[in-house]
Every structure is written in C-alpha cells, then in structure tokens.
C-alpha cells in the first residue's frame, strides 16, 4: 500500500489533474508539496487513457450474446473506475451504438449513451465504427457527439495519438445509410496520404486508434491494412494500435508494432461480462493496459 491509496488521496489526485489540465504548472507546484502529496501528484501527471469499445448501445432486446440495454450499466461501472484513477483522455474505439431502422430512433440511442459517455471526461475521442454509421451519415454521428473530423491526430504530454476512420467502401465511398457491406472496410488513398504526412510531422512516440482491425486479413480486417501498416512502420515512431470490432481480446506484434484488440462492452449479460481498460505509456515507450472484467491486462515494450 502506498499513500496514493489512502482515502484522502483521490480528492488530491483529481484536484491535481485539473490543475495540470488548466495551466500545466502542476509539476512546479508539486515540488513544494509534502512527500505523500507529491507522489500522488506524480501519479496523476502520468498519461492515462480510458478505453472502451463496441458498446453497441440500443434500447432494444438482446440478440444472441449482445445485450444492448445493459451497456448503460456497464459504462457506469467503467466511468466510476476512470473517475477513481483520474484519466487524461477517453477514447471509444467504435460501434458506440447499434442500428435502428429509423434515423430518429438511432439519434435517440446516440444521445442517450453519449450523455453518459461525455459526462466521464472532457477530453474525448470517437473512432467511427461500422455500426455508428449504419443508419446515420458520418456528419450526423459526428455532429451529435461534437467531433469535427472522422480522422485526425492530437498530442498529449509528449505523445502523439492518431484516430483513424476505416468506414469507407473499396470504391472510396464513405459508409452511411446502409450503403455498405461491413466486411468492405478500407482506408482510402486520401487518408493514407494524410496519415503518412501526419506521422512524418512528429517525433513523438505514437499510438493509433482504429475500429476495424489493422492486423488480420479475415472479415474483421481492413482490406488494405497492409498499406496502412507500411505507413505506420515507415514512421518509426508508432508503438501500438488499439482496435475493436472483433469483440475479443487479442494481441499481435507485426514488425515491432503491437496490435491490441479489446473486448466488446456489449457482449454477455451481467457485470461480470463487462470489459474496459486504462492504458498508460511510460517515457521509455512501455505500455501498460490495465483491463477490467473480461478485458485482459497487457504490458509490452
Ligand atoms: Zn462491434
């Protein structure tokens, strides 16, 4: 046990993190704090990302192993854990909602789950999943969650993060309004060029977030993922890719990049079938994934 586990610590941690986010001067302040408080501040200065995937929220009865309505309770548990740990940012790796026949119904599903998701953390990132844009158009989904772009990058605490969008048909058309087969996932040429230029523009160690998988050539894989991998490998800075879509734990290493697939929150009934994680990156590039419920723990360099 360390002091950071004492009952008083979480409040200090939360205050510390907010201070850091506001003005970036937490480390200066920490130097004058007593030892116990300083160690709590060190802990919160670390980059910690909350990760969830494949929530498939919908107000409809379960189908097979997918318990759509239970997602809200499972997300509430994840939210409490993220609050306890103090996260820098929150990423959902796609399929936040499940399909409805009507656009209005699907928008209602999205508003319901996003109200709860967005209460967790201000610094949020949404990867588009095929189910997000089954009935909705991309602009409608992104407009509802308040995200400007389907793919983009951002920096936090000296690390670079890339959000990819593989919801395009082989002919380059973006998914939307039931115009696609879910197995026809592609990263179009324009996005590949953007990715190469984006990675060339940073020296920071980089993490990539995707929905469809970049490491397999079966139905769950992006069809041209070899082209994507070539760009990631050429940058020399990419540590790992976190992805969802196939709903099961998996971890592969291809040419020095780790491809970590996370479990789906929607799978299975009851809290024991939940799955979510926090991810930390050390300055030396070591990545620790702390998994909860069905989500496996991972550590790789
Ligand atoms: Zn899914």
UniProtKB/TrEMBL annotation:
SUPFAM superfamilies this protein is in? Metallo-dependent phosphatases
Domain Calcineurin-like phosphoesterase positions: 47-248
* Superkingdom, natural source: Bacteria
The UniProt entry, under InterPro entries, shows: Calcineurin-like_PHP, Metallo-depent_PP-like, TAT_signal
> Which Pfam families does UniProt cross-reference here?
Metallophos
Source organism of this protein record: Stieleria magnilauensis
What protein name does the entry list?
A: Calcineurin-like phosphoesterase superfamily domain protein
């Amino acid at each position: 046990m360390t002091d950071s586990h004492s009952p008083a610590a979480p409040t200090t941690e939360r205050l510390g993190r907010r201070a850091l986010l506001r003005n970036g001067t937490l480390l200066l302040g920490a130097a004058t704090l007593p030892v116990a408080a300083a160690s709590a501040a060190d802990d919160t200065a670390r980059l910690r990302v909350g990760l969830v995937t494949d929530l498939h929220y919908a107000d409809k009865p379960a189908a097979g192993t997918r318990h759509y309505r239970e997602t809200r309770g499972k997300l509430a548990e994840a939210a409490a854990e993220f609050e306890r740990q103090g996260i820098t940012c929150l990423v959902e790796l796609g399929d936040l909602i499940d399909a409805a026949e009507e656009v209005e119904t699907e928008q209602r599903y999205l508003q319901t789950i996003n109200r709860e998701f967005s209460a967790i953390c201000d610094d949020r990132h949404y990867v588009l999943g095929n189910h997000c844009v089954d009935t909705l158009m991309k602009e409608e989904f992104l407009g509802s969650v308040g995200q400007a772009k389907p793919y983009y990058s951002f920096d936090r605490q000296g690390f670079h993060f890339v959000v990819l969008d593989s919801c395009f048909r082989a002919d380059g058309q973006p998914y939307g309004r039931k115009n696609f087969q879910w197995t026809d996932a592609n990263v179009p040429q324009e996005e590949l060029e953007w990715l190469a230029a984006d990675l060339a523009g940073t020296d920071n160690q980089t993490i990539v977030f995707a929905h469809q998988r970049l490491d397999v050539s079966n139905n769950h894989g992006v069809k041209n993922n070899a082209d994507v991998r070539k760009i990631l490998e050429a940058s020399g800075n990419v540590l790992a890719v976190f992805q969802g879509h196939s709903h099961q734990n998996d971890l592969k290493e291809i040419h020095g990049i780790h491809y970590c697939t996370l479990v789906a929150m929607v799978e299975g009934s009851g809290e024991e079938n939940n799955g979510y994680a926090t991810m930390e990156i050390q300055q030396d590039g070591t990545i620790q994934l702390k998994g909860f419920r069905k989500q496996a723990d991972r550590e790789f360099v």
